[in-house]
Amino acid sequence: MTYRLNANSKNFQKVLIKKVNKRSVFSDKDYNVAKKIVLDVKKNGDKAVLKYEKKFNKNKKLKTNYENIIKNIKKLNPKVKKSIDFAFQRILSFHKNQKSKDIKFSDKLNNKIDYKHLPLESVAIYVPGSTASYPSSVLMSAIPAIVAQVKRIVMVNPGYKGNQNPAVLYAARRCGIKEIYSIGGPSAIAAVAYGTKKIKPVNKIVGPGNSYVVAAKKEVFGDIGIEAMTAGPSEVTIVCDKYSNPEWIASDLIGQAEHDILAQCILIAKDKKILQKIKFEVSKQLKKIPRISIAKRSLINNGILMYIPSDVKIIEVINKIGPEHLELNTKNYKAFIPKIRNAGSVCLGKYAVMAMTDYGVPGTNHILPTNMTSKFSSGLSVSEFIKKISYINLSKKGIESLGPSAITLANYEGLDGHAQSIIKRIRRK
Questions:
Q1: pTM of the complete model
Q2: Could you give the CA distance from residue 295 to residue 260 in angstroms, rounded to a whole number?
Q3: Are 265 and 298 in contact (CB under 8 A)?
Q4: Dihedral class, residue 54 (left if φ above 0, else alpha if ψ from -120 to 50, else beta)
Q5: Is 418 labeled as catalytic in the residue annotation?
Q6: Between β-strands 3-6 and 103-106, what pairing exists: parallel, antiparallel or unpaired?
Q7: Over the stretch 205-231, which tens digit does the pLDDT of each residue have?
Q8: Among 21, 42, 205, 400, which is most exposed with the fewest C-beta within 10 angstroms?
Q9: DSSP code per residue over 334-399
Q10: Which residues of the chain have pLDDT under 70?
Q11: How many angstroms separate the Cα of 56 from the Cα of each of 131, 159, 184, 191?
Q12: SS3 label, residue 249
């Protein structure tokens, strides 16, 4: 973490935002590549999907058959299965509390309005794969849909040379997902958006992915739904003080940085000495992890050490950048809570660590808004898989009493047809 920022320096906020925005979700080049692939799949269907699978993942089959699922799952360590089962129950228990209640309203004129929550008919969850494995992402995407009672849940997850990760397949099976496709990238997004001979389209697609996947989701949005946020390269902001354990904080930063070379780690403190101690610990611990090259590039290119002398200014900066993950590793963290408005999730105190939330064992969701989008969006939840419909039943007395106001507004807006459709119903014979 070589980039340092001092809150007392000139143009501090301008430099900060420029540095944070440096990691754009996708470039124009990425978008153009993704758009080209989406249009190809939209036009040529399975043939195009298979072409890209052979090119990028050495795959020759699109759908994962039951025998292949069982064969792969048998390879999985029982301890991993047990951990997936444990996380499944924790995530399910928490998300069950997110169920929405229908609303029934009536007035003295006997007008009745119902506001009902209905599950989407079908969704696809995108789970990154190929040479990587993220069973936790299966649970995070599928469980809210299960709670919402979505009937058809499809998983798209790229394998490599015909093999998908056994933990990912086990998590999918634990969630009751039977329709699984070994496809990935923009072609997978297009396939579930527009459908092919082998793949029926869905109403919505959710789940994290690389810049090409994010670009493809933006391209198909409007034809199908996507999450109301950007789930791009991961990020964490950690606020620490002189009481923080430098060894622990350093490991938190490295844990985030090893995700991706585009991951971003920001460390904030009022104490310059603790910043220096943590920086030393990061250098020391980096040498001991297998993904050192990824973590090191992430920290060098996107890491920021910030000296900010006051809590007021720290809160201002947090709300300005709206981090995906926020760790308040300070003695007075409770004082920050009411003032934090923008963040995907907030870990409170020295034992609440982002790495725990990544695996769902606390129960919360790890698919969260990134790139400052927490200012207007939230993490994935049951509500992403629910649509709302209003049912209006007006009585004769109701339209006669309410109608004149609507007629006045219709006339004001120059919409005579609107006014007449109301007038005809309240005109006395």
A1: 0.91
A2: 7
A3: yes
A4: alpha
A5: no
A6: unpaired
A7: 999 888 899 899 999 999 999 987 766
A8: 21
A9: HHHGGG----SEEEESSS--HHHHHTTTTS-------TTGGGT-----GGGGEEEEEEEE--HHHH
A10: 1-2, 23-26, 130-132, 230-231, 428-429
A11: 11, 10, 9, 16
A12: helix
Cβ-defined contacts of 329-337 (< 8 Å, 24+)? 329/238, 329/239, 329/240, 329/241, 329/244, 329/248, 329/249, 329/252, 330/239, 330/240, 330/241, 330/243, 330/244, 331/241, 331/243, 332/241, 333/239, 335/311, 336/239, 336/311
Distance CA 252, CA 1 (A): 13
Are 286 and 254 spatial neighbours (Cβ–Cβ below 8 Å)? Answer: yes
Burial class (CB in 10 A: 0-12, 13-18, 19+), 120: buried
Q: How far apart are CA 49 and CA 51, in angstroms?
A: 5
Tell me the per-residue pLDDT of 239-281, one tens digit each, with 9 for 90 and over.
999 999 999 999 999 999 998 888 899 999 999 999 999 999 9
DSSP for 94-143? Answer: HHGGGPPPPEEEE-TT--EEEEEEEE-SEEEEE---TT---HHHHHHHHH
Rounded CA Rg of the chain: 25
Can you read off the two tokens belonging to residue 331? 């003695």
Alpha-carbon span 229 to 378, nearest angstrom: 7
Residue 324 known to be catalytic = yes
Q: What is the distance between the alpha carbons of residues 207 and 86, in angstroms, rounded to a whole number?
A: 21
Catalytic residue among 325, 327, 366, 384: 325
Q: Which two tokens stand for residue 86?
A: 């444990």
For 303, half-sphere exposure in the C-beta direction (CA atoms, 13 angstrom radius) is 26
Catalytic hit among 227, 235, 324, 384: 324
DSSP state for residue 198 in the 8-state scheme: S
Name the nearest CA neighbour of 150 among 95, 229, 87.
95
The CA distance from 237 to 284, in Å, is 21
With tokens 């007038």, the residue in question is 423
335 φ, ψ to 5°?
-70, -25
Contact 231, 214 (CB under 8 A): yes
Using an 8 Å Cβ cutoff, are 275 and 307 in contact? Answer: yes
